[in-house]
Amino acid sequence: MAAKKEPNLLEQLFQRRDTERERIKVSPKVIKGKDLKAETNEMGIIKWYLHPAMKSGAIRTILFWTQEIPAGSHSGKQKHQGGSVHYVKEGKGYTTVDDVKHEWEKGDLILIPIKPNGVSFQHFNTDKEKTAVLVSAEPNWYDAMGVDMGSGFEQLENAPEFKP
């Protein structure tokens, strides 16, 4: 019995293409927020719509999530490459970018810049009565460049709601 020949590297790309096409064919084209569970992690209360670990979405090129920041609370503080955007769906507060304060309110867009050595950021809800809601996205550079992306990926401070 002859040994099965391993596909060459180009053939492996074609196999990967075919696998991706099949995955996309059966993947949901609408992700229902009501069907998702929020997780409380080091950054706070997050509902993930698209994430590199989630294999079911029709696209894997971006991360997309919502974040709730309870009244008077704040997110965790993180350092990474940058390049994320956060739309303020509800609330008012401010974000620190490399410890510089930038105020925001409902309808604003928070831009976390890309910096060669990374950027630190943290969101604060200044309303003492209402929850702030951010709708956020960033490119999925993690699959292409690795999680450190050349500048590091660090949790500098946890959100108060996170209980390890």
How many domain regions? 1
**Portion in strands:** 35-45%
Main-sheet strand order equals 1-2-3-10-5-8
What is the alpha-carbon Rg in Å? 19 Å
Largest beta-sheet characterization = 6 strands, antiparallel
Q: Note the gap between the termini.
A: 55 Å
Looking at the overall shape, the CATH architecture is: Sandwich
Class by helix and strand content? mainly beta
Q: Unreliable segments (pLDDT under 50, ≥5 consecutive)?
A: none
Order of helices and strands: HEEEEEEEEEEHE
Which term fits the overall shape?
elongated
User: What's the CATH topology label?
Assistant: Jelly Rolls
By DSSP, the count of extended strands is 11
The H-level CATH homologous superfamily, spelled out, is Jelly Rolls
The averaged pLDDT comes out at 94
**CATH class group:** Mainly Beta
Provide the helix percentage. 10-25%
Number of helical runs?
Answer: 2
Key features of this structure:
elongated; 11 strands; Jelly Rolls; 2 helices; 14% helix; 164 residues; mainly beta; 5-stranded antiparallel beta sheet; 6-stranded antiparallel beta sheet
